[in-house]
Amino acid sequence: MAHHHKSNKEVEGDPDYGHGRGLPRRPDEPQLQERTQEDRRDVGLPVREQESPERVYEQENVEIDRQVDRGEVETGDLTHRQREDEDPFPPSHYDG
Hints:
- The protein is built from 3 helices and no strands.
- By secondary structure, it is an all-alpha fold.
């Protein structure tokens, strides 16, 4: 006799995607991408190939490095620097 039991994931689904009252909280991204590609094929639009996440990450790093080299992005210590005349502690009460 064939085994008819579904896996827990198939039965319960992903709690972030498949549950709730009405629409899921977030769409299932891979399934959404696949359906979008199918719809584009069906209406005759060019199907864009999905870039690998590693390639996208590398391109973003190159762009950030380019912006840093041109001085478009601040770098260095971005912590709050206290002025010499500034009290290091806030007032314990406020005049109102």
